[in-house]
Write a structure and sequence with these properties.
Layout lengths: L2 H8 L3 H10 L12 H13 L3 H8 L3 H10 L12 H12 L4 H8 L3 H10 L37 H8 L11
Helix pairs in contact: 1-2, 3-4, 4-5, 6-7, 7-8
Length: 177
């Protein structure tokens, strides 16, 4: 049985079971410790520059397992450090041309999260996807009758419906302007 199943049977929280197992040096059911060969392979792949996800796929383990191993060994994640100086220049040019994180990542051959980290590190806002138009809405232009809580057909106003769905009393506000 796993921690969740044990917790349900014992009428306890998952964390309680986890802590009890850790205090008694018991590995969770279904988990297997990394073998010496796996540890060696992980170490080699890490120093080759593979990230946690890539390593996990190659040895058929979870990304979390690789992340725990890396943190236990005080190693930083491989990611942005794998982008070359030429790629940084390409990323910057593509960003200025209006490409979004996903499009840049696909073109460069890295994840959009790497591009997002690069963009945030350079304090740059996200570019919108192609064809997406962002329009600012001035709240003062919205008429009171257009607000959903003032529309009698809106679920915001249907207290009886909300009470029926939630099974809890709903406080009624007569005039929400």
């Amino acid at each position: 049985m796993n921690d969740s199943e044990i917790a349900k049977k014992a009428n306890r929280c998952n964390v309680t079971i986890y802590n009890w197992r850790k205090r008694n040096n018991l590995a969770p059911n279904g988990w297997q410790k990394l073998t010496a060969k796996e540890l060696q392979d992980i170490r080699e792949m890490y120093y080759e520059g593979l990230n946690d996800c890539e390593i996990a796929k190659k040895i058929n383990r979870s990304q979390e397992t690789i992340c725990r191993w890396r943190k236990k060994n005080n190693l930083i994640p491989n990611g942005l450090n794998r982008i070359t100086a030429e790629q940084f220049q390409d990323i910057h040019e593509m960003y200025l041309a209006g490409f979004n994180d996903y499009e840049i990542g696909e073109t460069i051959g890295t994840s959009n999260s790497n591009i997002c980290r690069w963009r945030k590190a350079n304090k740059l806002p996200a570019n919108a996807p192609k064809g997406w138009q962002h329009t600012e809405v001035d709240e003062s232009e919205i008429q009171p009758e257009d607000k959903p809580w003032n529309d009698p057909e809106s679920l915001f106003c249907d207290a009886e419906f909300l009470e029926q769905i939630t099974g809890k009393p709903v406080r009624r506000i007569e005039n929400a302007n």
